[in-house]
Amino acid sequence: MQRILIIYTGGTIGMIKNEKGFLQPFSFEHLINYIPLLKSFPASISSYSFDELIDSSNADPDFWIKLSKIIIKNYDDYDGFLILHGTDTMAFTASALSFMLQNLSKPIILTGSQLPIDLIRTDGRENILAALELACMNENGTPLIKEVCVYFENTLYRGNRTTKFSAENFDAFISPNFPSIAEVGIDIKLHKQNLLKTNSDKLIVENDFNNNIAILKFFPGIKAETVEAICNIKNLRGLIIETYGSGNAPTDDKILKEIEKVINKGLVVLNISQCTVGKVQQGKYETSVKLNDIGVVSGKDMTIEAATTKLMFVLGKNLPQSEMAKLLENSIAGEISE
Predict the structure, then answer these.
(1) Count of beta carbons in the 10 Å neighbourhood of residue 72
(2) Angle between helices 90-100 and 61-74 (to 10 degrees)
């Protein structure tokens, strides 16, 4: 019998309306009352509930570190972990955990819901039960899934490849540049060829983040003064630029000079496409050649969630600029297509 730890952090899945009509999280014990099947599920299930449940909009590096420490503390006692999390920043948390906990030998699956668990039409019950089934999948007692995943509406995704694309539909997540890991219908179809392969069974734990970063999204008509203001944020250590198409940016010399200045100061600038599908290919078009020339790092096909958390993670290592650039350009936990 597989041993699974459910970690309840808050989020829509465990919310009810308060006297003012606003949704707020309630205790895990109440959650079990709404899913009585958990009591007879064919696995040994334990639970851990955060003392202070949060709306996932309040997730930050301190929250990710707290979550990782809970997993590390219980790592040897369980065969898998199910994290109940709000949907708004679920992809950020999944990405962060994938960098913090490398060479996993068991699954860490995040799920949640679009509707609170106390509503008749909630998607939460099915998401929890299916995610538990996936977390329990094994061969001779060895877990089949050994990475951080997101499960939502019949599909299991690699966590650091997901992005939330709908605030209204039950299928709220997509993995635009990487195929699903499993699909759940009458049968569970596990796509073993898409599972993350690690080089070692020894868990690597790193939980230092530097969130002195900013995101600059280009738009037609953006002024150099806007770019200058962002590039001169106090204590800025890293910058993500969201460019057009395959990594293209305005060729305005004033704008490019501001970006070049921060790179020359030792900061890291990471290029991510505004397009959901596809990848950054600096130098494919003339409008991205200059970015290559001044030392902007290509984020290839990373999601903005993976890029944001990875940049914080890499900056937390306090490495020379060139070494940080190499880490950002290469896959750490399957977040980039090789």
Answers:
(1) 14
(2) 50
Query: Is residue 283 within 8 Å of 322, Cβ to Cβ?
Result: no
Q: What pTM did the predictor assign? A: 0.95
Token pair for 20: 């003012």
- Using an 8 Å Cβ cutoff, are 145 and 107 in contact? yes
SS3 31: helix
Q: Is 124 left (phi over 0), alpha (psi -120 to 50) or beta?
A: alpha
**Rounded CA separation 83/5 (Å):** 8
Q: What distance in Å separates the CA atoms of residue 130 and residue 154, rounded to the nearest whole number?
A: 8
Which residues 6+ apart lie within 8 Å of 121 measured at CB?
115
User: Which element (helix H / strand E) includes 163?
Assistant: strand 163-164
Q: Which residues are catalytic?
A: 12
**Nearest Cα to Cα of residue 162 among 91, 219, 228:** 91
Tens digit of each residue's pLDDT (9 = 90 or more) over 150-193:
999 999 999 999 999 999 999 999 999 999 999 999 999 999 99
Coil, strand or helix: which one is 27?
coil
